[in-house]
Amino acid sequence: MATKIENKSNSAGQEEEMNLLRDHFKDNIRILSSIGQFSYILKIRADQYDVSLTLQLDGSYPKKPPEIIITAPRLTPDQILLVQKLLQSYSETLRNQPMILSIYSRLLKWFDENNIQALTININNNTSTPRSPTNGRLLSPTASINNHNKISHNDEHNNEEIKKYSMKTADDIISYIECDNRLDKHYIRVGYIDHILGLQEKPFNDFDFKTDLSTINDRHTNILDISKNRIQHFKYVNEIIWDKKSHIDLIFGSTGNQQTIDDIIKRHENLIETKSAQDEKPIDMDHNLSTKRYLTLTDGLYKPNYLISIPINDSSIISHYIAYREHLLSTYPSIFSSSSSHILLIDPHHLHLTLLTLRLESSLQIEQCILALKRIQEEIHYHCSYPERICLEFHGIDTFHSKTLFIKCQQNNRLDNLRTLTIERLYEQQQKHKMNNILFAGNYQEFIPHIIIFKSKRKFLSIHQNETNDIYFGKQFIDALQLSSISTNENEQQMYHCIFKLDLS
């Protein structure tokens, strides 16, 4: 009874804090409610530093601090990890009280402590930190947010201009890319506005920048001719190097960014050297790892209870999945009747492609697994993005032992390698950081990527025999990995619950 009252109190307190945050941050905050295990997911933008703060709150907040994720194109991966650890530790000191605003303020303070310039400056004072327009005193991080609109208003009356750095144009960036031989143009992508399709992104080499037309002809030819004022961003190895809206310029440094194109190139070269060195190493560890990496025990102590998967969120795939499932329900009503408790249908909003299954036996192991995934995020992201993003194609249906009907994923060597890479890196993290043993339970040497349509405890030979295999469901890029728990409901049917998502977009 006490727990129910406490949960109700937490819920009311959370809702009150969310309302205060909405009033405080206005358009700079996005709040999602009831997402999986989380009661709220918040994304707060600090545009002055080009950083986003994501906080994931479960029902026990503020007794339990939120999960904190930082997105900051101007910071290195090591800096991002450092800031996340700092904020996570800081949040531990704020238990049992509203802490979101304090965490945000501590983030701004870190930027100030590390002398990272803001994207706006005061010309008279020549400083990167917002100052009071009347007396020049430094504002606290919280006060600078509260008074942002007031400062802008007062500046108009006091003729103290606060403006952004003069930014190089897209034309300047194109000229630089054409001249700098260090930049491999195969790794450069251009984001631009299509009048019909909206924001699009294509390889740099697909464009003809010698002409400057007002229409895009990519629907008729293989060469793109666009007006340069429609270009929104440039990426190198999937990292933003110039962005019009966010005021990022890593090529010339015209907007005061701390990173430069040299940093991006060096990081890319280091990744290539690391990958090459790993590829040259003889694979002599399979015989040592096979029992841990590919356990096929699916019962007793080693039954898998977690999985790492690719979430399927493409609207076309989901709509085709729903349409086909409705076809099955209407064509085979006896199999899918309400009395058929042996049938498990997968929720369309929880579709996924399983990479591997795990046995995690404690909350510490779960936390260590999440931390290990964060540590290998950059390498996984690199593998999924270059030289092109991995595209999964789903075509046809098949069964496992006539008990599991699934959608087939077409053969993709890079997907196979992603699974192997994930297993290898998780094992290495486990050894390097002396993590508690994470068992790769329930996996087989042969990897058959698929999306489950339904599972049954009984065989359903009639369905597979009568259904055509020539059904196309669609394509999707890999934009995330997720760690999900595997549970069983009252009918002993498997249920999946995402507890962590690794962003690869």
From TrEMBL:
<dbReference type="InterPro" id="IPR006575">
    <property type="entry name" value="RWD_dom"/>
</dbReference>
<dbReference type="InterPro" id="IPR040459">
    <property type="entry name" value="MJ1316"/>
</dbReference>
<dbReference type="InterPro" id="IPR009097">
    <property type="entry name" value="Cyclic_Pdiesterase"/>
</dbReference>
<dbReference type="InterPro" id="IPR016135">
    <property type="entry name" value="UBQ-conjugating_enzyme/RWD"/>
</dbReference>
<protein>
    <recommendedName>
        <fullName>RWD domain-containing protein</fullName>
    </recommendedName>
</protein>
<dbReference type="InterPro" id="IPR019510">
    <property type="entry name" value="AKAP7-like_phosphoesterase"/>
</dbReference>
<dbReference type="InterPro" id="IPR042653">
    <property type="entry name" value="Leng9"/>
</dbReference>
<dbReference type="Pfam" id="PF04457">
    <property type="entry name" value="MJ1316"/>
</dbReference>
<dbReference type="Pfam" id="PF05773">
    <property type="entry name" value="RWD"/>
</dbReference>
<dbReference type="Pfam" id="PF10469">
    <property type="entry name" value="AKAP7_NLS"/>
</dbReference>
<feature type="domain" description="RWD">
    <location>
        <begin position="16"/>
        <end position="114"/>
    </location>
</feature>
